[in-house]
Amino acid sequence: MVGKNEGDSGSEKPLDLFLNIGLDEKTAKNTLANNKVTANLTAVIHEAAVTDGCDRTVGNLLYTVATKFPSNALVHRPTLLKYVVSLKIKTPAQLEAAFSFLDATASDNLKVNDFEAACGVGVEVSAEDIESAVNEIFEENKAVILEQRYRTNVGELFGYVRKKQPWADPKIVKQLIDAKLYALLGERTAADNEKPVKKKKEKPVKAEAEDKAIVEETAKPSEEEINPFSIFPSPEENFKVHTEIYFSDRPVLRACNSKEVLEKHLKVTGGKVFTRFPPEPNGYLHIGHAKAMFVDFGLAKERGGCCYLRYDDTNPEAEKKEYIDHIEEIVRWMGWEPFKITYTSDYFQELYELAAELIRRGHAYVDHQTPEEIKEYREKKMNSPWRDRPIEESLQLFDDMKRGVIEEGKATLRMKQDMQSDNFNMYDLIAYRIKFTPHPHAGDKWCIYPSYDYAHCIVDSLENITHSLCTLEFETRRASYYWLLDALGLYQPYVWEYSRLNVTNTVMSKRKLNRLVTQKWVDGWDDPRLMTLSGLRRRGVTATSINSFVRGIGITRSDSSIIRLDRLEYHIREELNRTAPRTMVVLNPLKVVITNMEASSVIYSDAKKWPDAPADDASSFYKVPFSNIVYIEHSDFRMKDSKDYYGLAPGKSVLLRYAFPIKCTEVILGDDKETVLEIRAEYDPLKKTKPKGVLHWVAESAPGVVPLKIEVRLFDKLFISENPAELDDWLGDLNPESKVLISEAYAVPSLRNAMVGDRFQFERLGYFTVDKDSTPEKLVFNRTVTLRDTYGKVGK
């Protein structure tokens, strides 16, 4: 045996363990930066019984086992480690062969003879055998070697030798190849050391299009970018081990389904993917839920499977029918159709019966500690005084809890997990608590309610969910998830966590959103400044653009980034640019009197709804009246002109879009001699003038008839800081300019018939939608997004 000491001492620090097996200090410290590799390598060292150290060659192989061992065959890792430590497997080639064999074997019984044959166990390759193989390779490739000399690809030669002698010692192979090269070529020359000059290819005259095609071809998106769901395994693969749970007092739990359990599951599901979107009905859904919907419903749709909409309704005090109705409605608005709508409360009876079974199996107990005592004992890793009470006593007390005999707060049911674990979520989590509160869905039948940690995984199993997908903050709960299903002998779904969707200049926590709403910092859950999905919808954002934004982000596990708001706005503009017809609105009207036009005269021009509107399609145009009273934006007039200014100024001409050029001839000022009250101008009916500036405008449709008055709400970022959630005084960061109300803007007559939810591009101003506050007397428009695109300039 190569191990220096088989004794297991559990007190070593990871860094010491890594140095003991021969890792250099830099590699050891880099390993500590990766929690997953650290945990795997520590486990491997303990399983191999080399905590006091081993030869460096063995240590390097152990490191490879920790980083590359197939996760579906973890049950066989201890066996492989015995082969490594005893030097029956001693080369990287043998180890790679072992990985391939075990990956194919998975959790099935290991056929030792076939395994040893596949890995070359017991095969000794002599130096003479290796030399003979090297000589053969050099003879076969002599002409190429003489031509390329020391530029010969040694890696290829190495590969040829390995095909002939797969279990040859790689060090000996390298030494013999180097020696053979020297014997054939002699000393290196100056020419051998020169870098080869790359010849530039001559481009044909008309190669621009071809070059572009080549660039596009080399920049092909990855399979994951094309199909973000390709990372998930099929339901048939859910017998593979992909999670290990470490305990302080018992063997490692390798979470997987037996083939019998999996076959039973597949028979029920027909081999289809089953997912679930499980919101808690205690608030309105926000854009983070849009990502969850995309992952859950999207995976099921892509694989031809089914996705439940399941209300996680285990807390009756916080849940309302208002939220339940909203969630179902917004899920469908987002374009998703649930396979079934279920409630965790639908399973309250099964959950209760399984909790009693958990007690009978010795895995749960009734506890009488107060919440403060539970917190203190968990922090100190101390067992509850009632942890080891008799099973029958806990069963009786649990029944008393159910019958309402025990007062609220005087007892809980806790799972008997591992109080000495390194994972805080294994410290005897609460499974049931007493609440004398009627349930919005289940009524007053129950006075005990299951916790999320108890109910979530069991209902996943009862609904035969194949992929239980959630955000990364639940990753540490994976141990509890699988511990409970294993303790009850239930089918185990495949669990995978992805990063939360965080967007700049907003808050996403329900607690903070609820405070904004209840304290009236905003105008309800659907305030257009909020990142709630109802708020975004009211703002005029489409479900298509939200899903496009989420898909563009991808399903990653990187949890350190916050997505810039302008990236979302880019996708909104992309959608609205294609779908929102153009129209003209003046937000801050400045009156312009056309002095060379009759007061009774009205000329109608054709204005384009779309930039590329075909001339022969009447539906792509709308009529806009031009009269002697026109209104432009106050900001489009200056008293002093400049070269970089394209608006109107005294003596200057501009083009009124779709109409005529006008020239400012006089300015009417207020009593302060500064405030501009009115402009006098002349128009060019023959359109001979060709000014550079083009302005949007609105005119009176008849003498003395004021243009259509509308209310416009200009929405901006709700918070000034990019990440207000990090601030202690986050409410103090609210943007005072997040909502600007313009009560009397002027619009073209064609907008009079706009309906709630209709979307438009107000030319030169942005994209707007008709708000639900509109009345027959006055339309109200919300600004969805400006025309400016900062994200598109730096990349999509």
TrEMBL record:
CDD domains recorded: GlnRS_core (cd00807)
SUPFAM superfamilies reported in the protein's UniProt record: Nucleotidylyl transferase (SSF52374), Ribosomal protein L25-like (SSF50715)
Keyword terms, alphabetized: Aminoacyl-tRNA synthetase, ATP-binding, Ligase, Nucleotide-binding, Protein biosynthesis
GO terms under biological process: post-embryonic development; reproductive structure development; translation
Domain of life: Eukaryota
UniProt-recorded name of the protein: glutamine--tRNA ligase
Catalyzed reactions: tRNA(Gln) + L-glutamine + ATP = L-glutaminyl-tRNA(Gln) + AMP + diphosphate
InterPro entries: aa-tRNA-synth_I_CS (IPR001412), Gln-tRNA-synth (IPR004514), Gln-tRNA-synth_Ib_RNA-bd_2 (IPR007638), Gln-tRNA-synth_Ib_RNA-bd_N (IPR007639), Gln-tRNA-synth_Ib_RNA-bd_N_1 (IPR042558), Gln-tRNA-synth_Ib_RNA-bd_N_2 (IPR042559), Gln/Glu-tRNA_Ligase (IPR050132), Glu/Gln-tRNA-synth (IPR000924)
Assigned EC number: 6.1.1.18
Glutamyl/glutaminyl-tRNA synthetase class Ib catalytic domain span: 272-577
A UniProt-annotated Pfam family: tRNA-synt_1c
Domain tRNA synthetases class I (E and Q) anti-codon binding: 694-771
GO molecular function: ATP binding; glutamine-tRNA ligase activity
Similarity comment: Belongs to the class-I aminoacyl-tRNA synthetase family.
Stretches assigned to the Glutamyl/glutaminyl-tRNA synthetase class Ib anti-codon binding domain: 580-684
All residue ranges annotated as the Glutaminyl-tRNA synthetase class Ib non-specific RNA-binding domain in the record: 15-170, 173-246
